[in-house]
Structures are given as C-alpha cells and as structure tokens.
Design goal:
Chain lengths: 102, 130
C-alpha cells in the first residue's frame, strides 16, 4: 500500500510534517503545498531532516504555491520534484490513498 | 478514476478553499470523474450566494457554481455545519422558520451520510483543510 501524504503547513509553524515523517512508510510520497512548501527550501534549518526523509520517501512540491510566495524553483532542495496541479492529480492516481496532514 | 474532494475551510480565510477548487478543476481537465465535492465545517461558507468580493478579486462561490454547471458536479453542503453558520436552502428555511435562503447555484444541503457514501463510491478522497 503506497500513500501520498500531503502537508500544507510550514514545519516552522506546526508539527504536521514531523508527524507525517514518523508515519510515512518507505515507498510512499509526500507532497508539500500551501505553506508546506517552506519545508522544501535549501538553506533552511529543516533541510537536513527533509534530505534524510528523501532517502525513504519521494518528495514533491507544488509549483504554483512556490510562485504564489515569490519563491523560485531553483531554491528547492535537490531531489524534490516540482509539480503543478495536474501533477498533483497524477500523484493521487499513482498512489493507493491520499492522506492529508491538515 | 473517481474522485471525491472534501473542503473544510471557508473562502478568503484559508488557502484550502482555493486549493480544493484548483485540484478539482485539474481532476476534470485530466478526464477523471468527480463523484462529489463535500463541504464540511467552515467549508460550508463556500456555498452562500450573499458573497460579494471586490470586482478585481476571484469569486470563490461563483467559481464553484460555474464549475458545477459546466461538469454537472454534485456539490454537497453538510446540513449540521450549514445550520450553525446560516447557510440555508428553501427546505431548511421552512423547517427552521427562517425568512430567507442563501444557498448558491449548484450546491445542495444534505447529511454526513453523503460523505460516507462518496468515500465508498470513489477511488480517492482528497481532503483540503487547515
């Protein structure tokens, strides 16, 4: 069973990403969107933790939500794929379930 | 594939109301089916036709109504959440002796059973909230 986990809160505001990382099994995926995109940025204090997670789970970030916050795609940590809403839909089709860490 | 989208937050308050709309639109553009959109908690505020945003702002309520008309969507508003927040259709107005109704085009008020049924009937349920 592979799950797409969605995280829409900044890890600097809420602990939902920490909870998600504790429960996400290897082979699943996490999509950062809305304020969740702040977890995907290079040079931030969460970078090492997020890179560590990328060893076991696939990481994605929603491009339109980066753009809405004035953040260029080249500031995203290497290995995190940028997707648009169509990509978000594809990810929810590819995985068996979508679990929202709201 | 069949999708159900659950919206837990109101418009102009939280991005979830916008994200849910953009996601639903993308699902339809991809050729998938949207079995139902269920508005729960503050999400019921997406269904009031009294909303009048400034002209240069997006109209979150009308946007849903237009999408529903175009794709024959089933937009369901949770009745208990709607009663608390003053979202009323003709039937609810009568039942609760209210002198007005404000349900926007394309929305209908029903119960939580509709969410459970949608969960059973759909391949995916995607939740947008705070």
């Amino acid at each position: 069973m592979s799950i797409l986990h969605t995280v829409n809160k900044s890890p600097y505001e809420k602990s939902s990403l920490d909870s998600c990382l504790r429960y996400a099994k290897g082979g699943s995926a996490i999509l950062f969107y809305e304020d969740g995109i702040y977890a995907a940025l290079q040079g931030a204090s969460m970078e090492e933790k997020v890179k560590g997670a990328a060893q076991n789970v696939k990481l994605y970030v929603l491009g339109p939500d980066l753009k809405a916050r004035g953040i260029a795609e080249d500031r995203v940590i290497d290995g995190i794929a940028v997707v648009d809403y169509a990509g978000f839909v594809d990810l929810s089709v590819e995985h068996d379930k979508v679990s929202a860490w709201v | 594939m069949k999708f159900t989208v659950q919206v837990n937050e109101g418009p102009y308050q939280h991005q979830a109301a916008d994200s849910a709309y953009q996601f639903t639109k993308a699902v339809l553009e991809k050729g998938h089916e949207v079995f139902r959109v269920f508005f729960y908690h503050d999400g019921v505020n997406n269904a009031t036709n009294l909303t009048t945003p400034p002209q240069d702002d997006r109209h979150v309520v009308n946007r849903w109504s237009e999408l529903a008309k175009e794709h024959d969507l089933d937009l369901v508003v949770c009745v208990a959440a709607a009663q608390r927040r003053g979202i009323v259709d003709e039937g609810e107005a009568k039942r609760n002796s209210k002198d007005a109704e404000n349900i926007a085009d394309g929305f209908r008020i029903s119960g939580l059973g509709q969410l459970i049924e949608a969960g059973i009937q759909s391949d995916r349920v995607v939740v947008f909230g705070d």
